[in-house]
Each structure stands twice: as structure tokens, then as C-alpha cells.
Amino acid sequence: KATATLVYKGKTVKTKKDRGWEPEMTVLDYKVKKAGWYTLTNTATRYYPEIKYPAGMLSTKSVVSYRFYTKPNSNALAEVNSVTMVPAGLNNWNKAKGGSTTNVALKLNRYSQDPDAKRGKNPKFKSLGVKMSADGGKTWRTVKVKKVKGVWTAVVPNPASGAVSLRARATYKSGGFTDVTIYRAYGIA
Questions:
Q1: Which of 51, 74, 108, 169 could make an S-S bridge to 81, C-beta 3.0–4.6 Å?
Q2: Residue among 7, 65, 5, 8 at smallest CA distance from 35
Q3: Whole-prediction pTM value?
Q4: From CA 48, how far away is CA 64, in angstroms rounded?
């Protein structure tokens, strides 16, 4: 299931829900009435009617938020990136060894699925931060981010058991940001 919410000046201006199992694509449409900063958040959880997922399932929930400036009658791509987190060294079951360290590559991309959207300016990158959680997102701890062979990489100290949730935030000089959270991103063997 997924819920997309668009917020302007602290107030929700549009919400769209997707039940997750229907073949139709769900789209949140909104005609911008006032120039300003908007935050679009999409929360998705694994769901299908009549299916009970196993307790140890990975990537059970994800949340992504984009903060961007826009104005009426603009058809330019928002000045934000998507952030993809790619853990290295996991086994065939997406698990890392307990007590080890996992390098997570952080890839910033700017895609457009709308052929009519103007690309506009690429966001000017300001900072990139990552947090990890070993308790399903109840508490978060900042981890080191460094460049490894030219790629921004989070160095994640793994717990002895359980699973690791990841949260990344890319901020831009414009004042915008991208937040991505993956709950139970990978397991611990």
C-alpha cells in the first residue's frame, strides 16, 4: 500500500492512496496555486490481501520525501534528486555478517518520466547524511559518509543480529532536500 501526500506551508493540499494490488497506476495530480516550498512524501508498505508476510521479511516499508520550490504554470522537473542506497557484500539472502561493517553506496539521480517536463537546473548539492537503526526505526544513529572510489558511501556498523534500517538525506543549496528511509533494508546473518 502507498500514500502520497503533498504539503504546502504545513498544510496537506493533496493526498492519494494506492491499495497496492490493483493493476492501475495511481498518480497524485495537483495544480499549484501559489509559489513556494512544497514537500511530497510517499509512504509504501508491503501489502496484499490475504497474505501474511514472514516475520523476517526485508524492506517492509519505505518513506521518501522531497522538498522543492515551485510556482504556478511551471512544468519543470523539481530541483531534487532521488537517492538510491546499495549495500555491498551481502549474501544471497541480503544479509551481512553480525558485527561486521557494510559499505552502502549512495547514488543520486534525477529522472523524469514525463516527456513534456522541462529538465530545469540540476540541484546544487550541499550535504549528504546517513543514519542507521538496529531496532526497526525506533532509534537512529548517524554513520560516517565518505567517498570510496568516487562514490559517496555510508559506512554502517552492523549489529550482532536482526536487521538494519537505513535513512539518507541529501540537502541542496536551494533549501530543498530528499529524505529516503528503508525499514529492514538488509538482514544480519
A1: 108
A2: 8
A3: 0.90
A4: 21
List, run by run, the mean pLDDT of 10-residue segments along the chain (189 residues). Answer: 95 90 77 96 88 90 97 86 96 97 95 73 91 98 96 98 98 96 98
HEC-encoded secondary structure of the chain: CEEEEEEECCEEEEEEEECCCCCCCCCCCCCCCCCEEEEEEEEEECCCCCCCCCCCCCCCEEEEEEEEEECCCCCECCCCCEEEEEECCCCCCCEECCCCEEEEEEEEECCCCCCCCECCCCCCEEEEEEEEECCCCCCCEEEEEEEECCEEEEEEECCCCCEEEEEEEEEECCCCEEEEEEEEEEEEC
**Among candidate residues 88, 69, 131, 79, the one with its CA nearest the CA of residue 108:** 79
